[in-house]
Structures are given as structure tokens and as C-alpha cells.
TrEMBL record:
CDD domains: UPF0066 (cd09281). Pfam families: TrmO_C (PF18389), TrmO_N (PF01980). NCBIfam families: tRNA_TsaA. Residues 6-147 form the TsaA-like domain. Keywords: Methyltransferase, S-adenosyl-L-methionine, Transferase. This is tRNA (N6-threonylcarbamoyladenosine(37)-N6)-methyltransferase TrmO. InterPro entries: TrmO-like_N (IPR023370), TrmO_C (IPR041369), UPF0066_cons_site (IPR023368), YaeB-like (IPR040372), YaeB-like_sf (IPR036413), YaeB_N_sf (IPR036414). One of its GO terms (molecular function) is methyltransferase activity. PROSITE patterns: TSAA_1, TSAA_2. One of its GO terms (biological process) is methylation. Belongs to the tRNA methyltransferase O family.
Amino acid sequence: MSEYQLTAVGHIQSPYKQKFAIPRQPRLVPEAKAKLVFSSDFNREEFVRGLDEFSHIWLLFRFHETADKGYSAMVRPPRLGGNERKGVFATRATFRPNAIGMSAVKLEGIEYKNGQLSLLLSGIDLLDGTPILDIKPYLPYSDAMTDASAGFADTRPETDMSVEFSEEALAFIEKQTEQPELKAFITNVLKQDPRPAYKKQRESDQSYGMTLYDFNIRWHVQDNHNTVTSIEKC
């Protein structure tokens, strides 16, 4: 087998500080804002000249937190409840031979501030610190195949999860000014039901925590209802 050396062109500054709660596909949570910060070798505006003419881009990245764990020929897709095995190349699982992933995200803008080049993104599904290997413009006429079929993942994942906020959590959201879409962001993350498949099947009453941006968020799940109990600054 041939071996290739890849150099990251930059990394992602993401609101998702842990794998838990990251949407399983891009653009499921449009309020998820992020930055792609370019590495020193690529920190020049020439590299992105003309990119602002495109509304969406492809990101090729490395699953850096699981790359050292190797790969599996067969995996259990969360979409199937973790109960059925599929070949890794029939999924978007992280445990891949080269640990490479891809996401189509919205390009909100290009920023060059204090000598640092960055892309402003939304609808992101990447962990904070994810290395970006390449960037390509999204081409609707070529990339959007309207007659395509997608096997066991043919439709957008939907749940019947509902979300409410405690008075304490709402008071915090109203007081903070850093993230104006924080309530909608948390709501859409929880509507995706980030719990592992086995917990959905076995537990109907449980408390959880996650970090989004620099906020610690606690919530309680009972049956199909989420209650955000508290939000605190990290």
C-alpha cells in the first residue's frame, strides 16, 4: 500500500468541545457557528480569493480524537439504533482506515483580522480543534443529486423530542450577550437527541451535561422530553 503525508491547512474553532452532542451530519443545527483558522503556511488571502462567491463549501478533515484507535470493517450506525452492523464504507462512521471525514457547510464570510485569515461557518458538525485537510467549493449543479437514494439514511433524522427551559436557564440566556442564538442552538442540539443509542433504549429518566461554546449546560430527559435545568459559564 502507498503512504501519503497530509498537512492540515487549518483547524476548526467550534462550539462543540466534546464529541457528545455533535450532530451526526452537517447543517442539522444551523445555529452552530464556527471558524476555520488557517495555519501559518496558508495564512494568506490569495488562498481563498474568489471563495466568497460560493454560499457553501466542502471541508475534508481528520477525525483527530479517534484516529489512533484504528479502524473497523464493520460498524454499528447510530441511525439504526446501534443494533445492526454495516460495512464502514457504507457509513460515515469515524473509525475509518484513514480517519478522513467530509462536511458540506455554509460559508458565512471570510475574515482577515490582526493578520489572521479565517472562514466564518455555520451548520458545522465538527469537534473543536478538528484539523482541516482541504477546502473545496460546493457546486449545486454537480454535488446536489436530486435523484440519489441513500439506503438506510434516506431521510433527515427526526425525533419527537421536546425541549423546555427552567426559569433559571432562561434568565441566564436573557442575561448573556455573547451568543444571541443560544436558546435556539441548545434546542436544536437536544431535538437531535444526542444520547447514545443504548441509553435511549434502557433509560427513560436521566440527567446529562455538555459544553457548548464556553457554557456548561445541564438537562434532564424523561421519556421524550428534555428540560434544560441550568446553564453556567465555564
